[in-house]
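Self-study notes.
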Amino acid sequence: MAEDKCGVAGCDEVAVRSYAREACEQAGLKPENENARRMRLCKEHNKQFKKATKTDRKLETLGR
């Protein structure tokens, strides 16, 4: 089985998670493919994404 690569421009690591491309762009990650709906992220970029969206995710869970 072929492993998916990270969708961030210039990264060739193995992807561990995928998120909506728009959310990744808002978190400051530059996508390799501008037409893709989702972006796969490696472990390091996933950590950056989670750090950048921490307050948004916290507010969303409080609003439930």
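Second protein, same conventions, sequence then structure:
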Amino acid sequence: MFCTGCGYQVPDAQDFKFCPRCGKKIEAAVEAPIPAAPVGNATGELLPQMQALANSLNVKVEDKRKRILIVEDDLFIRELYQKQLEMAGYAVDVAVDGLEGREKVLTNNYSLALLDIMLPRMNGLELLELIKKEPTKKDIPCIILSNLGQDSVVEKGLSLGAINYLVKADITPMEMLNVIQERIGK
């Protein structure tokens, strides 16, 4: 048997209630040693083997990262922003249209939402309006990230409750990241 705390091979679990090396209580048999690898990667996610171990021991592991929703129908842009945000340490969910974005917003907790305007099935302004009318979701900061930069569209987005309006063609992914970090922190 191996200790789930340090991976030490305990000679006979019936003789030991606690690991002789680290002192962790021995509760369940573990068939293989636990790798001496770090528990997280650069983005703060658990490594797959550590998540599997937590699942096998029925241990709930809570993700403490700030969660961002990207609602964007363009695959390239969606993946570009997703990778940029994940590399910065955020947990990221994506939606490819307004209705999927609505479902995710209503069923998850987000620190921020990035909304495109031109979306299939429900546009970003309609989604923004829905978010701001929902009592339990109205405090989610929303940033519109669109190629529509006309004053009337920008004004409409800000009047509906967006905290910022960014034109995709005028901003780099790093600049977008800086705006997000200014609003919700790292």
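Instructor comment on the second fold: The longest helix spans residues 75-87.
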